[in-house]
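Can you give me the bound-state structure? Components:
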Amino acid sequence: MNVTRLIAKDIRLQRAFIFPLILLEIAGYLAYALQMPSHIPGVAFGLLHGVAFIGDFLICYRTMIAEEKNRALMFIKTLPVSTAEIVVAKFAANLILVSLNTAAMLTLWGVGHQLGWIEVKPALTAYLVIAGLTVHWFNNAFFVAISLAFSSEGAVWVPFPFLFVLMTVMINFSRIKVALNLQGTVELVQRHNLLSLTLLWAIIAAFAATCVWVRGRKRVFA
Amino acid sequence: MTASSVAQTPLRIDRLSARLGEFHLHAISFRVEPGQVTALLGHNGAGKTTTLRLIMGIVRKDSGQVTLGGLDHLRDEKAFKQRVGLVQEESFFYARMTVEEFCAFVSPFYSGWNEERSRQLRHSLDLPGNRKLGQLSKGMRMKVGLVTALSHAPSALLLDEPTSGLDPRARVEILRLLSQLAHENGTAVLFSTHNLHEVEQIADRVIVVDRGRVLADESLAALRRGAGPSWSLENYYLEMVQ
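Here's the bound-state model for the whole set.
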């Protein structure tokens, strides 16, 4: 129950932020999409997720930094709640807000397809929705884990080198696959595509568990 | 452990120590008796805030024990916090929440929350329920902290410099309330301060801390009785810290 109360608090505090953020992202995406040259439609879906990625970061930043700055986290620690409840609630609130954000962007894509505004692939499927949500949960959970384990400022600086590494890996994935002889593994994941999602869910759970452990050992809970 | 047995027992701090950077709290021990106001007196950086935060588990201790009627502050964390209230000096949490929303957020966490008492406290402290916390003065925010700390009728109430930066009227109101809580309701009140006048006004007991050590732990009445007419808390304090 304590977890639910803490989640409700975060959702209530962010309600004035999440909807303008979604509108801004949609407007930003449409502005870019209109300017996009017709010969690179392949990046349209990637761009949609790229915009939502920024939202993942901003959601984490908003839910963490204010409570750190005004010492609300310290106040919450004086309530009869455990460290595990505080950490789990923070992850869960972020997942809910990120789900809203991602769902809005995917709805834009789906509706665009239905109305014939968007003709490029992929058409939205149940798997793509689940995969899209999972990738954004993972991205946001990474930011949340860093800000809980270190600080919100850490969430700004620490993930960016990782993002550059990730982008480099994505761009050069074909070459990496050949060089590291990963063809078999990639085919396995493609055949059992829920496997990779399950792995990401497990990593999100591991992030939360690690944060409970780290928070319990921090000298000051702030 | 029943609620009534907890209510009648002191808050015991036993050989509590912690290291925070350069600062070291050296195995401090004292008791906060129910029905008494105990002042934790010391200058800035003496270890007052750290002590209060250690009691609430905000700062991690190296060793020592904090108990209230057999409840350990870490092992029985939730039960302990159900019976202890802390009002922090900087209580500017959720600027966009109104006073009522803030109380509504805090209340479900406490099994002993009394909504009628909360309403009475808000009324007697002149707190407008529909005002946002961000629009309140420091004194008003301190009062909000007091309302939430007192509405679950804690056995022990801890306050970190409750009158710091307050106007004279708010100061008098809060000191009167603390005295009333201890002497009429039997709450164990511990407040940190560096204001000697406040200690003389309402404290029954004074604990002098300096550089992370307890230098003195005395009943003010006993100190006054044992010394001559020229005794003053100011001289006593200076003697201790020098």
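A couple of observations. Residues 2-35 of chain A form the longest helix (34 residues). The radius of gyration of chain A is 19 Å.
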